[in-house]
């Protein structure tokens, strides 16, 4: 079917009208004109169909060879904590399934996070020092003289965890994403396809709800 | 006004790699050339990011993309190669897929074929608008033509495309 041919100058504005690219005055002219000009209405429908066809063309994936070797180091902590934007979570997850480097880094970050989260909780005293909660046998008062000891113990805990995790496999730590994801629960339940896909993987420590 | 955040090179590859590929594929219809263009653009972006001064990042990126594409077109003109036939691209081959899948595939192939028949100036503006999703201002910046010309090329490009696609919708 050939496009409608007619002499209306307004016809030239119809694509911009569809795209929301008209000035206020032009918009007024086009809307008024479309009330009465059958040719322009027909052309408007044809242009809209063409635009729809173009905009619904499938979005093609880039072949792997075209993209450089990209890793997600900077995003892994946010991924671990379920703090990535909803749309990025499945992207990072898909990458993790293929990238051993990022899997290993995620594994190490998780070990470090676990070590930090396992630290005893301290209550502040009025004199500025800290005191453990009642019944907490592991409390370490946070005094100036003990800070270096505390820092050393955190570092040691991270190291021990890392060594124990890595020594079980001579090939180095291999993250089982399924097991890994079972350690966490979904933080949110937005009903978008992306969030449904990422829900199992949204990493939130169950020990710290 | 908030200061523009300049993405690093990996961000550009992640965020724009697919868009650049689709831009190139819709302009050329050739997956290999399109993959080459993505590589070339990312290479140029990597070199250029050090000198990039905050402004319109999209405009900057699409100017690079467009220049890389035009350089490639010029290079191929100097060393012409045998174009792939329709069969090599799988267009028109019967498919065992269900009818609706088949008709959908054919529809997109027909639209792609119609796109390739547009003069490059019109095709480029239509692709930047409807495939890449740039505004008229961004297209004007990327292609270095007035907004009025962008508007006219998009309008005429869509009309030509609609005329080429002859089946009733």
Any idea what the shape of chain A is?
Answer: elongated
What Rg of chain A is obtained from the alpha carbons, in whole angstroms?
29 Å
Q: How would a textbook summarize the main sheet of chain B?
A: none
Tell me the total number of β-strands of chain B.
0
SS-derived structural category of chain A: mainly alpha
The number of helical segments of chain B is 7
Largest sheet of chain A: 2 strands, antiparallel
Low-confidence stretches of chain B: 82-97
Secondary-structure element string of chain B = HHHHHHH
Portion in beta strands of chain B: under 5%
CATH superfamily of the largest domain in chain B: RNA polymerase sigma factor, region 2, helix turn helix motif
Distance between the termini of chain B: 45 Å
In total, the number of strands of chain A is: 2
Supply the helix-strand structural class of chain B: mainly alpha
Task: Based on the coordinates given, report the CATH architecture of the largest domain in chain B.
Answer: Orthogonal Bundle
Which term fits the overall shape of chain B?
globular
The overall pLDDT of chain B, averaged over residues, is: 81
Number of helices of chain A: 9
Largest interface: A-B, 31 and 41 residues
Q: What proportion strand of chain A?
A: under 5%
Q: Which fold does the CATH topology of the largest domain in chain B refer to? A: Rna Polymerase Sigma Factor, Chain: A
GO molecular function, one term (chain B): sigma factor activity
Protein name (chain B): Alternative RNA polymerase sigma factor SigE
Domain RNA polymerase sigma factor 70 region 4 type (chain B): 109-161
Keywords (chain B): DNA-binding, Sigma factor, Transcription, Transcription regulation
Short description:
Chain B: This is Alternative RNA polymerase sigma factor SigE. The complex is a heterodimer of chains A (209) and B (169). Chain A is built from nine helices and two strands, in the order ααααααββααα.
